[in-house]
Amino acid sequence: METKRILIADDHTIVRSGIKLIIKDLLPSTVIEEASNGDEVISCVKKNDYELIVLDINMPSTDSITLVTNLFAYREHSRILIYSMNSEDLYAKRFLKMGVLGYLNKESKAEEIRRAITCVLNGDLYISKKIKKALTEEMHLKKGGDNPFEKLSDREIQTVKYLLHGYSLLEIKKILNVHSSTVGTYKTRIFEKLQIKTVRDLDELARMYQLEISKL
Domains of the chain: which residue ranges? Predict the structure, then answer.
C-alpha cells in the first residue's frame, strides 16, 4: 500500500496532536507533517506534495484567503480539508467555491472527522449535514445573495467601516455623534448577525466577501 503524506496546519499543538491521533488510527502508515502558521504551510507545500492538507484558517498573521489561493497556485490539485471554529454557514461556501474539498467545524466528533478525512483523501467533496441543509434550503427557497453583510443596517455598516479602520468605540461614538452605549450595541449586533467574536474575525470576513471599505 502506498504511503500517504498528510500536512496538519494549526497553531495549537493540542489540536494538531488530536488530529494526528485520528489519522494514525485510520491510516497507520501515513507520514504526517505539521505547520503552525501560514509561512510554514507554504514552505512545506513548496517542498512536498501532500495527499491531504488539514488546514486551520484562524492561525495568527495568516490571511486565509491568500493562503488557500497560494496553496492552489503551488499545488493545483491540493486536497484541502478546512478545520475551523468559524461558522460553517458563513465560511464553508466561500472556501468550497475556491476549490477546497471539505469544511469541518472544530466541534465535530471524531467519527465525523474520520469520515471527512477519508472522503477528501478520495478526492470527493465533504459537506456536513448542516451545510447540506443550508445549501438545499437556499436552492429551494431561492434566497438572495449569500453576503452576510447584507443583513446589517446602514448604521451597523458605518460601524463596520470604522472598526475595520481601527477606530476605538469612543472614536466611533464621536464620529457618529451617538451615546457610547449605542456604539457598543451596534458592535454587539454586528457580531451576532455575522456570527463572529472579534474584530479580527470581522476583517477576515470582510476580505472573504470582498467588502470594499472605501465604498461604505
Answer: 5-139, 148-215
Domain 148-215 CATH assignment equals 3.10.105.10 = no
Judge contact between 33 and 47, C-beta under 8 A: no
Q: Tell how strand 102-105 and strand 52-55 pair up.
A: unpaired
Per DSSP, the three-state class of 216 is coil
CATH H superfamily, domain 5-139: Response regulator (3.40.50.2300)
Q: What is the pLDDT, as a whole number, of residue 139?
A: 55
Contact (CB, 8 A) for 96 and 125: yes
pTM tops 0.85:
no
Q: Give the cell for residue 48.
A: 512536498
Angle between helices 154-164 and 180-194 (to 10 degrees): 90
Quick check: helix, strand or coil at residue 109?
A: coil
